[in-house]
From TrEMBL:
CDD domains: PEBP_bact_arch. It comes from Dehalogenimonas alkenigignens. SUPFAM superfamilies: PEBP-like (SSF49777). It comes from the Bacteria. This is Raf kinase inhibitor-like protein, YbhB/YbcL family. InterPro entries: PEBP, PEBP-like_sf, YbhB_YbcL/LppC-like.
């Protein structure tokens, strides 16, 4: 399975347009090589370097396996077309929370795309804990891309 994030590759710096120092839009993300048996896709973005511990920037699930991308600037609402759902990020809002570290060392923003053998049963607006429980034991394959950003 492969994930392509527009504007950067694994280990590279995230473009300003996807951060709080720019318009803060979610990047376009595309993928290929979804394994047979996958029933849905999910995406999780987090920052393990956040001052207060793990900060979840984006939770999105129920992505149909027939889809091949998420567009740039995905709407920040609980329910999207085609049954796609978004959770509440650590900032308390739906959808994508842009990279916005405090001044200091560079942070590592992990984008994790998962192919699931089920469609998670979650209400729109679920948080990280509920999401992690719902996908536990259902990940057929996953790919991780880490973007860097510092201020």
């Amino acid at each position: 399975m492969e994930m392509i994030i527009d504007g950067f590759k694994d280990g590279e710096f995230i473009p300003r347009r996807n951060t709080c120092d720019g318009p803060g839009l979610s990047p376009e993300i595309s993928w290929r090589g979804i394994p047979a048996g996958a029933k849905s896709l999910a995406l999780l973005m987090d920052d393990p370097d956040a001052p207060r511990g793990l900060f979840t920037h984006w939770i999105i699930w129920n992505i149909p396996v027939s889809a091949f991308r998420l567009p740039a600037g995905t709407a920040r609402k609980a329910e999207l077309p085609n049954g796609i759902m978004q959770g509440v990020n650590s900032g308390g809002a739906y959808g994508y929370y842009p990279s916005c570290p405090p001044p200091g060392p560079v942070h590592h923003y992990r984008y994790r795309l998962m192919a699931l053998d089920a469609v998670p049963v979650l209400n729109p607006g679920a948080g990280r804990e509920q999401f992690d429980r719902a996908v536990s034991g259902h990940v057929l394959a996953e790919v991780l891309v880490t973007g860097l950003y510092g201020r």
